[in-house]
Amino acid sequence: MRTGLELLREAQAFSARLPLILLTGQGDHEIDLKAMKAGAADYLIKGQLTSDNLERAVRYAVENWRAEERLRRERDLISRVMQTSPVGIVVTDQLGQITFANHRAEEVLSLTKDAIKNNNCGVLGWCVTDPEGYPIHDRPLPLKQLLETGRPVQDVCHVLDFPDDRRVLLSTNAMPLLDSSGKIDGMVITIDDITERKKLETQFLRSQRMESVGTLAGGIAHDLNNVLAPLLISVQLLKTRITGDEGQKLLETLESNVLRGAKLIKQVLTFGRGINGERIPIQPVQVVQEIEQIVHETFPKSVEFQADSAAGLWVVPGDATQIHQVLLNLCINARDAMPAGGRLSIKMENMVLNKIFHGGRNPETKPGSYVVITVTDTGTGIPKEIQNKIFEPFFTTKAPGKGTGLGLSTCFGIIKSHGGFINYYSEVGKGSAFKVYLPADTAAVEPKNLAVESSTLPYGHDELVLVVDDEVPILTLAEATLQHFGYRVLTAVNGAEAVSIYKKHQHEIAVVVTDMKMPVMDGPAAIIALKAINPKVRIIGMSGFNSQGGMTTAKNAGVDYFIPKPFATEVLLHTLQKVLHQKAVTH
Ligand SMILES: Nc1ncnc2c1ncn2[C@@H]1O[C@H](COP(=O)(O)OP(=O)(O)OP(=O)(O)O)[C@@H](O)[C@H]1O
Ligand SMILES: [Mg+2]
Q1: CA 413 – ligand 2 centroid, Å
Q2: CB under 8 Å to 312, separation ≥6 — which residues?
Q3: So what's the pLDDT on residue 448?
Q4: What CATH number has the domain bearing residue 74?
């Protein structure tokens, strides 16, 4: 047999939460107290049991039990809400020491229950940041001010640096906690981890900024191209006419400088507007071999070089010269980051990016197959404060004359125009790794022979060429060049004039060389009109806009050959030869 008290304890052990009223013997006061302490709802003394007594005790016990049950459910709900809240919630005492943190806050702040219990995690050391997320150390601390004045904290960004080098950005809101007399005895803070969001935002802003600088640079470069084109053609023409050694030397200096200017412009255009160049299947290993040679020949011996490639590397459709330029830029940066020497390595591997990766750190990443080329150095590393800026054009930490700050922005432009992207990881004092992701062609394709064509300039055989450009100096010089190299030339200053000349001489004209941007009738419109006259007309497009856009417009209009301005005589003559020897075309 069990006593009433034993029964009560047993019921509690089964977590039965029903109210229990004990019937106790008369005068056994101690047992009565024990029963109440153990959680009995009430006790009734056997001898004094009346129906009134019993009814009151039962009603009271039931009411009491319901009230407790309500309270318990509320407490349970609050606790579950706290623990499942996607927002971190932290409560502090009046000294700013954390006394409670919900599950999310523990996670974000890497807090342990023990640390909270031992009272050694405070919030008053949290550092405020600027809108970009960089710490400002001399700003008054809003959480401290809240404890002093009660002024709530709204959407303030804090940055926390953890010993494992992790940096977390928090968006915080806080309100004071008041005691019954209205005095501040702590605060409640909500925290939202915005590290990833800020990263994406910054990346987005950066690419927007790059885009606007690119547009601006593209416009300027277009005009500069038109300045350089006649210069280059004149110099090349003069070289064939002036025979004296001294004159030739001067002309060579002039030519190399004009070419250098054209190269600079091309670089600016490449970063801003993309690419103009033939896309051929490239084997990354081949490009890296060329880089290796340059590194061995020109880098200090204290820089150790190593290249590794996974077996069965895919082919990348692209412009070999530009991919070469990207890798060389990255290697030069690596060399500059290791003034006392170190290890420079290039690793190549295939990688399939799935949807999960897509949209993560790189908003512009598309799922698909990539060849990833990683250039790693053991140099100085890049401080966090400038990591955001390194891809900006003209951002450099190098001494004047040592760097223009165009290296990485050019890489960015080239890789973007190839449909790829660049990632980097860097730790100060340890080194950096730049990862270039290039969309790959997974079907096995043999790369074209990259050998440079013979440099002797091909002459024409009295073919008639119609040159169309609104820039008269370019027209005049193109005319002189072509005549010098054995062609006959007709010129037109816009599309309309070209069409009317073509109508008159269509059976004689072998090729039309036309600019794309012209007043009255532009290139694409003229091409359509020319094709209406003769669907097999042979056309070479040219444009100062060294862009994918110029080439695409030309291609859409049915032009298979395209030369960027300013073109070297060599390019114009070789392209003419290619077009003229196209077998399929007949008049
Ligand atoms: N591997 C690296 N290690 C350390 N810092 C780097 C590295 N790569 C780039 N940087 C930093 O990024 C900045 C910008 O690089 P970028 O290549 O765009 O220009 P630059 O090297 O200064 O000049 P340029 O390439 O035009 O000669 C550098 O000045 C340097 O501070
Ligand atoms: Mg550089």
Answers
A1: 14
A2: 350
A3: 34
A4: 3.40.50.2300
Cβ(387) – ligand 1 distance below 6 Å = no
Tell me what the mean pLDDT of segment 213-228 comes to.
75
452 located within any domain: no
> Does the C-beta of 261 come closer than 6 Å to ligand 1?
no
Identify the sign of the CA torsion 42, 34, 50, 11.
positive
Query: CA–CA separation, 268 vs 547, rounded Å?
Result: 11
Q: What are the pLDDT digits (tens) for 360-391? A: 445 567 788 899 999 999 999 999 889 888 98
Please indicate whether residue 427 or residue 234 has the higher confidence score (pLDDT): 427
Q: What is the pLDDT of residues 447-482, one digit of tens each?
A: 333 333 334 577 888 899 999 998 887 888 788 888
Residue closest by Cα to atom 11 of ligand 1: 390
pLDDT of residue 490: 94
Range of the domain at 302: 280-439
Q: How many CB atoms lie within 10 A of CB 281?
A: 18
Calculate the CA 499 to chain-centre distance: 46
394-400-402-403 Cα dihedral, nearest 10 degrees: 0
Helix 569-580, helix 472-484: angle, nearest 10: 70
Secondary structure, 3-state, 390-426: CCCCCCCCCCCCCCCCCHHHHHHHHHHHCCCEEEEEE
